[in-house]
Amino acid sequence: MGAIVQEVTRLVLLRHGETTWNTDTRIQGHTDIPLNTVGVWQAQRLSAALADQPLDAIYSSDLQRAWATAQAVAAPHGVQVRAEPLLRERCFGALEGLTWAEIEAQHPAHAIHWRTRTPEWSPPGGGESLVRLQARVLGVLHRVAAAHMGQHIALVAHGGVLDALYRAAVGLDLQAPRSWLLKNAAINRVLWTPDSLTLVGWGDTSHLDAPEQTLLDEASAA
């Protein structure tokens, strides 16, 4: 008898385009910040890069920076974006809106937990721990991927969400130091089966390689 070939779901994992809070190093979390001019351009470049790759479904965080990115990706495919609130960024509670430097100065005890990635630590003001974030993200991934077995789908989300998925795909614990990139509008790929999550490619930003003047011209015309 021949070997049984297990069906897989192919996923392309996308981080939203740039926002002004990204460039200011402000913590966004659930705060609903729009794309800036560069972010709109990045979303358009991402759309062009994926235009010839059939997508059966596109799911997105309902925060506008991800939603606008997903709408751009969906345009060439004629696919309706499906809102998925469980793909939202980690909630950082009272720390949202602060820069890294401000957190260090105003909340030094919390900053230590942040730097050392204490898994059970929750940011003050109703923030979400890494343990809870991971459970949320893996839960929605398994549900969505199982619903599209054998298909190719896109998830548009945030840096913290993609970090949790990368760790799951390569078997790293929550406190392992980060050595991988989580760039805006990067293309990341994984394969899902009911028993595994496998990394295929990570951090592809070749579609964003363009002379600065081209970037500015295209963004201003958007």
Please explain how this structure is put together.
The protein has about 220 residues and is an alpha/beta fold. It has a single domain, classed as Rossmann fold (3-Layer(aba) Sandwich), CATH 3.40.50.1240. The chain is about 40% helix and about 15% strand. The chain is built from 8 helices and 6 strands; from the N terminus they run βααβαβαααβαββα. The protein has a 6-stranded mixed beta sheet with strand order 3-2-4-1-5-6, with helices on both faces. The relative contact order is 0.21. The C terminus is likely disordered.
Summary keywords:
222 residues; alpha/beta; Rossmann fold; six-stranded mixed β-sheet; globular; disordered C terminus
The general outline is globular
Number of helices: 8
Q: How do the strands line up in the largest sheet? A: 3-2-4-1-5-6
CATH architecture descriptor text: 3-Layer(aba) Sandwich
Q: Could you give me the name of the CATH homologous superfamily?
A: Phosphoglycerate mutase-like
* Count of DSSP strands: 6
